[in-house]
Amino acid sequence: MALKNSKKKAESPNLLDPLQNPLNDLINSLPNLLWLRTIRSQLLAIKNSGATISQVFVDATQIPGEPVLMGVQVLSVDLNFVVFIQPGSGGSTTITIRLDAIIGWEM
Fold first, then answer.
1. Angle at 72 (CA atoms; ends 61, 36), nearest 5 degrees
2. Phi, psi for 97 (deg, rounded to 5)
3. Which pLDDT value is given to residue 73?
4. 18-50 pLDDT tens trace
5. Is-contact 53 34, C-beta < 8 A?
6. Are 34 and 23 in contact (CB under 8 A)?
7. Which pTM was predicted?
8. CB 98 within 8 A of CB 78
9. Which of 47, 70, 84, 105 could crosslink 56 through cysteines, CB 3.0-4.6 Å?
10. HEC string for the chain
């Protein structure tokens, strides 16, 4: 007759527990990342075509009425931001906007 071991085996700690919250945050942010990728690729296409955007709509800023993004062209598109230029202005003003602040635009 075999004797059963009455001691419970010590449970090994779950190594993923400390990573669970960051992983959940990353998974939950994927739709936003895909949206930003789409915005980014569309802005790159506009840049490459040289088209002028009639108006860019952005989230509210700390300065009322700023920035004025009318009649702009895309100068460059980075991973997290886009640089617009107003070609008609005297000094060719450049305006940098975070991609996640862009609501939309009108061509």
1. 60
2. -130, 135
3. 93
4. 777 776 776 666 666 666 668 888 999 899 999
5. no
6. no
7. 0.62
8. no
9. 105
10. CCCCCCCCCCCCCCCCHHHHHHHHHHHHHHHHHHHHHHHHHHHHHHHHHCCCEEEEEECCCCCCCCCCCEEEEEEEECCCEEEEECCCCCCCCEEEEEHHHEEEEEC
